[in-house]
Amino acid sequence: MIQPLAYIHPQAKIADTVVIEPFVTIHKNVEIGEGTWIGSNVTIMEGARIGKNCRIFPGAVISAIPQDLKFKGENTVTIIGDNTTIRECVTINRGTQDRWKTEIGRNCLIMAYCHVAHDCVIGDYCIFSNNTTLAGHITVGDYVVLAGMVAIHQFCKIGSHAFITGGSLVRKDVPPYIKAAREPLSYAGINSVGLRRRGISDEKINEIQDIYRVLFVKNNNVTKAMNIIETDFKPTEVRDEILNFVQGSQRGIMKGFGGN
User: Fold this and answer.
1) Active-site amino acid positions
2) Domains of the chain by start residue, with CATH
3) What's the pTM value of the predicted model, to 2 decimals?
4) What span, in angstroms and rounded, lies between the C-alpha atoms of 29 and 11?
5) Residue 258 scores a pLDDT above 70
């Protein structure tokens, strides 16, 4: 299952059912799980931990050292979850001492020419379209969709089930369940199509919409909106998730409807 023109360091741990095409280079301190396919001309560097049944397409570079001048050669890792697909020429850098890892979850699709920098933590079932770029220390929840050529500033957080339109510049945190668009990036409604595809009930979708009307549409500042949401909405998993995200934001959240 390993082509003779591939180079694999003798200390790499490769499961028996892994397929490795010609001209692949795999460094030491690498682990690859069962059923994974590594396309030709892929480079997998130290610290890579690749799960089962992944597909990595030609030209990708996984677990290169961070593009961070503070990096001092620490023993850090890149983790790729099971069933994740990484398309052509994607680059993923390993962690620094800050988080010690860069992690991409299970069942993700990272399309061609994307870049995921050091210390990013990506959830499960995410889709990053072509040429999307994540700077360092970014956190992305589950089921997030980033359209083509999205660029995200370091230390930003993207909530679960969010959708960000193509060509967007993300400078602030994006709360869960919403669509983000325009320049500067702002609220463009909730991600109702994505939520329905994932089996979220209409009742819960309506609750999300009502919460975000208070936060983004009714001209409340964030502090006032949080007080109204906490007082007027009964405690639920959705309400508490949104409250915790906004209250825990270090960079601040993106703008509301109409730039408010």
Assistant:
1) 118-119, 136
2) 7-137 (2.160.10.10), 196-259 (1.20.1180.10)
3) 0.95
4) 6
5) no
